[in-house]
Write a structure and sequence with these properties.
Layout (H helix, E strand, L loop, with lengths): L1 H20 L1 H9 L5 H7 L1 E4 L4 H7 L4 H6 L14 E4 L2
Antiparallel strand pairs: 1-2
Length: 89
């Protein structure tokens, strides 16, 4: 269970970093009236760009089986969440 908890914490951090790296995510939030960085952080928003979560987490030492079991990737190895702003809490 600790591995899953650590994995999810690392995933949250990854998605929060991605929110600031992708212009389409920032534009979407701005369009929805969310511009205050403190509020965005308080809401726990992140961005799942798709296509690179598996590689990032595998580089951190997490197994394919664990990523599938937690629902972060599907059996084909693709990210479960792709090109969407998500609430992390």
């Amino acid at each position: 269970m600790a591995a899953e908890s650590d994995l999810l914490d690392r995933t949250v951090a990854f998605f929060q970093v991605q929110l600031h790296r992708h212009a389409e995510a920032a534009a979407y939030l701005q369009h929805r009236g969310l511009q205050d960085p403190a509020l965005i952080a308080e809401l726990g928003l992140g961005y799942a760009p798709g296509g690179n979560l598996r590689r990032h987490l595998a580089d951190c030492g997490y197994s394919f089986d664990l990523l599938c079991r937690t629902g972060l990737i599907n059996q084909q190895g693709r990210d479960a969440f792709c090109r969407r702003v998500i609430e992390m809490f």
